[in-house]
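User: Structure tokens for this complex, please. No commentary.
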Amino acid sequence: MNPDFCYDTARLGEVLCEGIAEVTREEISDFRTLMGYTDPPKDPTVAPTSIGLIFGLRLGWEHAIFPPGVIRTGDEDEFGVPVRAGDTLRTQFSIANKFKAKGRRFMNYEMRTLNQRQELVCSIRFVGMIP
Amino acid sequence: MSEALMSNAGAAASCEDDLPVRQIAITQALIDRYADISQDFNPIHVDVAMAVGTPFGGTIAHGCIPLEPVFQAIQAWLGTDCLPSGSKMRLRYRAPSRPGDVITSSVKLTAAAQGQPDTVKILSFACHNQDARLVMDGECEVPV
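Assistant:
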């Protein structure tokens, strides 16, 4: 595992990876179906807020930032402008800090997603319990 | 057919300060599909044989899955497809959600926000499984 992502040697507060995702209307529709939305959307080009979480998490897994077996224990999230079909989202991933509690190790991950107009889509901070 | 079962039965909230209730039925198929789109193939989510030998005793859902009814409840309350810009959420996961669970949201306007003419509503939320076990709780600030 990359030492930048390991508990003991993590580089804190720096952007560790960045990724781009283009959002399609089909992805939005598929996500709504998967998550069981029954009410028709007011605007089918607007994504549910929770879709923004996925792009950052996907980036983290693709870059193997998370150790296998990590358990998410809590979030602090801020949501910005809606995600729309055709948007290009750029997500930056960092590890904000790390700490120990009750004999367990935790890392505070942060992912920040902007759209092609540099508007904030979401800023997600979540705590992962390291196995 | 959707892999998640959402209920609109609670759309007429029981109390004026309660938001619509939403549910999600968790299946291994839903977890597997969510793993595909998030690329989160953590074995605790998708490797049924391995997960049996862990302290969880089986696979557990990704955290975003039991959280989804909260988003849907707030969006239904607002009549929008997504949360307003500037919304903030804090939450803690209290217990894992597993295949076979049905997760139900409970979202309320907090006492502090009731009757106040401010432009930000404070919502408290919790999600419970079919055994009334708390799986997560938290708070959401929503500009209105």
